[in-house]
């Protein structure tokens, strides 16, 4: 029986405990997408996690979705992230970069004027997103990627991986959930292509598989993980048969030697995402969504997962691991300060332990 507080390895990644900080967009980067000193402090404060998975990071100007999110495109961004990884490593922590290409989930005001909104098919997402310029705005209309552009977009994930390693990250995670570009390719509602990147189950699965292959080719598969949430309708995502889609995707990547699969469970659909990932993916799982301490320990005890990730609990509890260990009550966070600029509600949550 393994303990939540004991170390483990996910591929080449060494975790000093099995409590992972889940990726969270917090919009504290500069307008240009450069990591800020505030972000260095935020991640440093949370370095006692077994591993930190960063907020979603855009791999190209086209891939940016939300305002004040960081990139891994320019030299300045690599240097900014280097300060973050140095700070986390100085505290003995491990940190992976989440590579998130938003595809159609974006608004033109949130990104560089020369960038474009691209997706598998020209279908605008229903809904709105926040912009600093004009408040809530409808999602931008995407342009369907031409077949000969797709290798370039896959290449963006590989380049971001290279830059992540240059910036000192221990690993990288491809965001294949929550309605962003890889999930847009996977799902029938967003992928109406008739070429080899759509049209059939094998076609829809091709893009995320090639993304993972390209990321793995940079420095081996055992520093690369990916995040999925079969059946998630977030960001206007729809798939006729998410179980079939994700079974095929997981089968296609199961023998690649990847470090981990980060799977988000859903409470209000019949699909058991963790059971599906366990059945179809040989490598370790990080499981997520709404875990409490006792349930997290139970899922580790059962052997179903190698680690459990926590998002919201890390916001107000930078020393979450120590609080769990000593059964100290968790602090709440201020939902009004999740995405606002500045230190309030970001780096000003105190530790309860020394
Ligand atoms: C403020 C906030 C920002 C988030 N941003 C991301 C993100 O950038 N990438 C991602 O994969 N998930 C993101 N999520 C989802 C979380 O990683 C996690 O799946 C979710 O909060 C459920 O976990 P929890 O119950 O431990 O909070 C975000 C969640 C929150 C609350």
Task: Report on the architecture of this protein.
The chain is an alpha/beta fold. The protein is 30% helix and 16% strand. It is built from 10 helices and 14 strands. It has an 8-stranded parallel barrel with strand order 3-4-5-10-11-12-13-14, surrounded by 5 helices. A hairpin with a 3-residue loop joins strand 7 (128-131) and strand 8 (135-138). Helix 5 (201-219) runs parallel beside helix 6. The longest helix has 19 residues, at 201-219. The mean pLDDT is 97. Residues 22-25, 55-56, 98, 100, 175, 178, 227, 264, 288-290, 310-313, 338 line the site of flavin mononucleotide.
Summarize the structure.
This protein has 354 residues and is α/β, with parallel strands linked by helices.
On the 0-100 scale, what is the average pLDDT? 97
Work out the radius of gyration. 19 Å
Proportion of strand residues: 15-25%
How many DSSP-defined strands? Answer: 14
Portion of residues within helices: 25-40%
Report how far apart the termini are.
29 Å
The helix/strand order is EEEHEHEEEEEHEHHEHEHEHEHH
Bound molecules: flavin mononucleotide
Spatial shape: globular
Q: Compute the number of helices.
A: 10
Which structural class fits the helix and strand makeup? alpha/beta
Return residue spans where pLDDT drops below 50 for at least 5 consecutive residues. none
Give the spatial strand order of the biggest sheet.
3-4-5-10-11-12-13-14
Largest sheet: 8 strands, parallel, barrel
